[in-house]
Design a protein that fits this description.
This protein is an alpha/beta fold. 32% of the residues lie in helices and 25% in strands.
């Protein structure tokens, strides 16, 4: 460690405040020859102290003392520590506003307080490169992590630690720990399993067609399906109606050629609108292809392996970074294959039509014919009006707040009584997200609450969604081939 620096910026771990002698009694010269040592209390350390202050042991007492020091920082920007060595000034400041460094997901798990502390020091060094900074801890874990990330650190010497607790205190602690274990042995015990992990997904993102590509496709389309100029015979004709005894005896049909209005509507409106619709389909093809990609499905298995059922259970599934959402997969999509997109068929040109004069001659016959062809109305089922009330299974899990059909950041389930030593409960979600070109890195946290659980049970699973950019042109050309193969001109509106 370099000598002669005027100020050393130190990020102490929680153990410096709760497992060492008071700050004023420590030999700060161990850290080097500095005129001033600034102790920065980071957010992870403040949070751990707040959690440890409950109870009656020595650790809880030291945590309460440290918490009192932290409360003083609410009224003062800094606190001067009275030390035995007058040549060094020790000052405590709050670092609650400091945040861990970004871009270290592959090295740090910010669900861990130790990793958040190392990440905070890492970012502080990056923000203030001209300052002498180090991490101070007695625990091997954060020190090893700091070494791996080249974060300066110092290990608390054993001479700084408090003396071991007395035999009576240790005995009392063991008694309390035994009571806690016996209590926990009568609790439900929840196991959370993320199936098919690791959750590393891959999705396809189709690039939009360029204006030039769309123009080329429209030229090909119009060459294959030009405006039809055959509008059928232009002269009126008559023939005997084919369709039954009355028709044969009395009915005739008259052929009416396509009118000027029908031809104009086909040529100037229907065909032009079809071309415009096809062009819009080409421009939106990348979105259509993205929508029919196989959905990303994630499953979580929950099992109660404890000694008793869990009462009044609440299970929460929460996306931590809100970079994607979760929702219930559509129930009617099971086993269905996504339809291949294709263009609408071109409209059919008017070619005239045969019109029967039978309805004008015998309107009563036509009414009789319609009567025979009509279907009787179906009366509503009485059972539909007298539905029995839905009784919920007290051992089943039900959506809290309704089943989400669109991506949400938080999904919850309730269960009145979750039986123990039963088969696992499987929760299935579909992942929803915006295809913006970049891969997604996030996490899903699962938390189980119960009335007879001393503490909630939580597990977290990292989620990675890699996005692959692909060309849409081959799919666009295939649309033209599909039209040709299917013969869509025969399927158009008459």
């Amino acid at each position: 460690m370099s000598e002669g620096q005027s100020t050393l910026y130190v990020f102490p771990d929680t153990n410096v405040l709760v497992q060492c002698v008071p700050l004023g009694e420590l030999d700060w010269s161990y850290l080097g020859d500095f005129e001033q040592i600034l102790l920065i209390l980071s957010r992870p350390v403040i949070g751990e102290i707040d959690q440890q202050k409950g109870g009656a042991g020595r650790l809880a007492k030291r945590a309460r003392a440290a918490n009192s020091l932290i409360r003083e920082l609410l009224d003062s920007d800094s606190i001067l520590v009275k030390t035995r060595e007058k040549r060094v000034k020790v000052i405590v400041e709050s670092g609650n506003h400091l945040r861990p460094a970004d871009g270290l997901d592959d090295h740090l798990d910010y669900a861990s307080a130790d990793d958040r502390l190392v990440g905070t020091v890492h970012r502080y060094i990056h923000d203030y490169p001209d300052r002498e900074v180090l991490l101070l801890s007695h625990d091997t874990g954060p020190l090893m992590t700091a070494k791996r990330l080249q974060v300066p650190y110092a290990r608390v010497p054993d001479t700084w630690l408090l003396s071991p607790e007395s035999d009576e205190e240790q005995k009392r602690i063991r008694e309390l720990e035994g009571q806690l274990r016996r209590y926990q042995s009568t609790e439900p015990k929840c196991e959370i399993k993320f199936e098919d992990s690791p959750w590393e997904f891959k999705v396809i993102k189709h690039r939009p067609l360029t204006d030039q590509q769309v123009a080329e496709l429209m030229e090909q389309l119009k060459r294959r399906y030009p405006v039809d100029t055959d509008y059928g015979p232009i002269e009126q004709q008559q023939r005997t109606v084919r369709g039954g005894l009355f028709s044969a005896l009395f009915g005739t049909e008259t052929f009416q050629p396509a009118s000027v209005e029908e031809i104009s509507n086909y040529r100037d409106n229907m065909y032009q609108k079809w071309c415009a619709d096809c062009e819009a389909s080409f421009r939106e093809l990348h979105q259509t292809l993205n929508a029919i990609e196989q959905p990303l499905i994630a499953s979580i298995a929950l099992t109660n392996v404890g000694a008793r059922p869990a009462d009044d259970v609440l299970v929460q599934f929460q996306v931590k970074g809100r970079k994607f959402g979760i929702f219930s997969p559509p129930e009617d999509d099971d086993g269905k294959k996504s339809e291949v997109p294709r263009l609408r068929p071109p409209p059919s040109a008017p070619k005239g039509k045969w019109v029967s004069d039978l309805p004008q001659l015998y309107p009563g016959i036509e009414q009789y014919r319609r009567l025979l062809s009509s279907q009787p109305a179906t009366a509503p089922m009485l059972s539909g009006l007298l539905r029995a009330p839905i009784n919920r299974d007290p051992n089943g899990f039900y959506w809290r707040g309704g089943r989400p059909s669109n991506p949400v950041a938080l999904a919850e389930f309730n269960c009145q009584q979750w039986r123990h030593l039963e088969d696992a409960e499987i929760f299935v979600f579909q992942l929803g997200f915006k295809l913006e070109g970049e891969s997604i890195k996030d996490a899903l946290a699962v938390t189980v609450h119960a009335a007879n659980l001393a503490e909630p049970v939580q597990c977290m699973q990292k989620v990675t969604i890699a996005v692959e950019d692909v060309d849409t042109w081959p799919n666009a050309e295939a649309l033209l081939d599909i039209q040709k193969v299917v013969g869509l001109r025969d399927l158009g509106p008459r």
